[in-house]
Write a structure and sequence with these properties.
By secondary structure, the protein is an alpha/beta fold. It has 13 helices and eleven strands. The longest helix is centred in the C-terminal third of the chain and has 18 residues.
Length: 338
């Protein structure tokens, strides 16, 4: 097995320079770093993560905390984050909170706080003050994505504005009876639907449309729950809305299936729009708002890596610039029929 000393000899530099160049730590000229990387690759040198950790006090791993891993948003963020970490020579350690209170407590009190990771990325978490304190007490750089945490650097999109934009799009088409499939509030990591409902209500008020509580149903961010909510909203012709906005694309897809089941045509009989730009949204022809979770994950990791490289972040703002989003108009929305 090729050792770091052999790389140093072949590259014509010191062992310390090789260590800095390959580890991304400390001052080294860019040309020298690229030369060392090239020589190391030619020799087949692979750094020992264990040895590096012993020498630097670092684990060479970043912990990523997510509520769940089976959703499109989370899997997209994780894939992007892992790609950025691999390019930096770091591993990803995954902590899934789930719905079990005891498991959640173990993550905050044990796993994430044992020094097993050099930094933490919290994805779409709404945490209690106590949990936020435990994260800060870990003593490692932390970046939050999708759910601002008090005192912790965050990367996010404007959830309220995203919802307002897609609702306003439907209103601009001429719809006045616009229903909403929101999410179930109450769980500490699911305040997102509250923000998106606020955006819906603000857009209606801006257009002079009264908010009708009878046109608001809730779901659980799944196709099935969107289907059931849409059935409740659409089955009675006397109160049927001409348009429906869902706070997630999965629920919007369920609503489109429900409309078909009831003999309605989208968008002739009812327009449907969602939020997220799910990987299957184009297949459904769904009008939605693209929020680019992969780009969000990459941005969050780059902020975290910057903190790890400098060990100083006091001068950086806690809240990064809002990440971009875009209204994507497809065939599921149209003006109301006469």
């Amino acid at each position: 097995m090729v050792g770091i000393g052999e790389v140093a000899v072949a590259a014509g530099v010191s062992v310390a320079t090789v260590s800095r160049a390959l580890g991304g730590r400390g001052p080294v000229a860019e040309s020298t770093q690229q030369h060392v990387i090239t020589v190391a690759a030619q020799l087949g040198y692979v750094a020992s993560a264990t040895a590096a950790g012993l020498a630097t006090g670092r684990s060479r791993a970043v912990g990523v905390i997510v509520p769940k891993i089976d959703g499109w948003f989370y899997s997209t963020v994780l894939a992007s984050a892992q790609n950025e970490l691999l390019k930096a020579g770091l591993d990803l350690t995954l902590y899934r909170l789930g719905d079990d209170a005891d498991a959640r407590a173990r993550v905050f009190e044990q796993l994430a706080l044992r020094g097993r990771t050099d930094g933490l990325l919290a994805v779409s978490l709404e945490v209690t003050q106590e949990e936020a304190g435990k994260l800060r007490a870990a003593g490692t750089p932390i970046v939050s994505l999708g759910g601002p945490i008090h005192g912790i650097r965050s990367v996010s999109v404007d959830e309220i504005e995203m919802s307002a934009v897609v609702t306003d799009h439907v209103a601009q088409l001429g719809h006045r009876r616009i229903a909403l499939i929101s999410g179930t509030p109450g769980r500490s990591d699911l305040l997102l639907p509250v923000k998106r409902q606020v955006g819906y209500e603000l857009a209606l008020q801006h257009r002079g449309i009264a908010v009708d509580a009878s046109l608001i149903e809730t779901g659980s961010f799944s196709v099935e729950s969107g289907y059931q909510a849409a059935v409740h909203l659409l089955r009675d012709p006397r109160r049927r809305p001409t348009a429906l906005v869902a706070v997630s694309d999965e629920m919007a897809m369920g609503a489109m299936l429900a409309a078909r089941r009831l003999g309605l045509e989208v968008p002739r009989d009812v327009s449907v729009a969602g939020i997220d730009d799910h990987e299957h949204a184009a297949f459904f022809g769904l009008t939605t708002v693209a929020q680019y979770p992969g780009a969000q994950g990459a941005r969050a990791v780059r902020l975290l890596l910057r903190q790890l490289a400098t060990n100083e972040d006091a001068d950086d703002p806690l809240h990064d610039d809002p990440q971009p989003f875009e209204l994507v108009v497809r065939t599921s929305t149209a003006p109301p029929s006469a």
